[in-house]
Amino acid sequence: MFVHGIGKRKTPLQKSIETLESYLNRLKKYNQQIHICAERNSYSKTDHDATFMRMKEDSMGNGQLKPAYNLQHGVDSEHITWLTIDPKPTDTTTLIPFLKDAQEHLKFKYKNITADAGYESEENYLFLEANGQLSYIKPANYEISKTRKYKNDIGKIENMEYDVKKDIYTCRNGKKLGVDHIRHSKSKTGYVSEKTIYKCEDCNGCPYKSECIKGNNCKTLLEERTKTLQVAKTFLKHRKEDLDRILSEEGILFRTNRSIQAEGSFGDLKQDMQFRRYLSKGNANVLAESTLLAMARNINKLHNKIQNGRTGTHLFSIKSA
């Protein structure tokens, strides 16, 4: 018989059963939280569809996290032609679902896709190629690759000699780095990428070792290490092709207009329309709110273009100095 209240002594059996019940209740709570979270890393208790993300507006200056939605805009001729709401904080995994959703509803697909460095990935490159679309995506290392420090880093594959026929890299000290093994890895989206691991034949006594191998200041550990390279050949091939496109006259024009039009669409919402926080909760409501805002912004943009006689223009021309 179970007892309750002050002055009653519980039996060992009752204590054990109550402990077990508390564990079961806790397990149910954890399972419910895992179900709500799904593939995300977090969710808001006041809005289960919102995910905690780092915001550009950080009033505390400490990288605080806030519940938010990742809003994606597709812009054409200064008008928002499609938008999606995504719970993932990173942009890399949002490109393919966005393009599929847009193509399904718009009944056509754009030939040229221009995006910033946050959308670059091997999976995205291959999808655009298979879908008959040209990528104008700024490489993630585009800005840093132009610096003197990057160009003088002897440990990077870009600064090593490569023999295509023998598939061998040569370092500053003249040592050969040959293929050691192939490694496969799967992303969160299920995409399997292949990386070729190159290993140096002999790093002992190399005078450039401290410059070539990064990550360890301990002299003993550094002496024991051997230089290895991880090369994603498919990714590098598509990155080079994409880089050639964005450096062309057409690519420069597209990238300049992406900065003006795509980024400008968010600037219009935040600054001109003073919209900085959603008034509703849940994916469906937030999507509806975003759609209404985009429609209002498009009407305003069309009015401005009519007033300024720019209805026939699609791209801003590049101004030369």
Tell me about this structure.
By secondary structure, the protein is an alpha+beta fold. Helices cover 39% and strands 19% of the residues. The protein has nine helices and eleven strands. It has helices at residues 12-37, 95-106, 122-130, 148-151, 209-212, 219-224, 233-246, 249-272, 283-307; strands at residues 51-54, 65-68, 70-76, 79-86, 112-115, 134-137, 161-163, 168-170, 176-186, 192-200, 228-231. The strands form four sheets. A five-stranded antiparallel beta sheet has the order 7-8-9-10-11. Strands 1-2 form a two-stranded antiparallel ribbon. It has a two-stranded antiparallel ribbon with strand order 3-4. A hairpin with a 5-residue loop joins strand 9 (176-186) and strand 10 (192-200). Helix 3 packs across helix 7. The chain is flat and about 85 Å long. The relative contact order is 0.10. The mean pLDDT is 91.
Biggest β-sheet, characterized? 5 strands, antiparallel
Helicity range? 25-40%
Total helical segments: 9
Query: What's the mean pLDDT score?
Result: 91
Total number of β-strand segments?
11
Structural class: alpha+beta
Strand order of the largest sheet: 7-8-9-10-11
The shape, in one word, is flat
What's the SSE pattern?
HEEEEHEHEHEEEEHHEHHH
Our measurement of the CA-to-CA distance between the termini, rounded to an integer number of angstroms, reads 91 Å
Q: Which percent range describes the beta-strand content?
A: 15-25%
- Low-pLDDT regions: none
Rg is: 27 Å
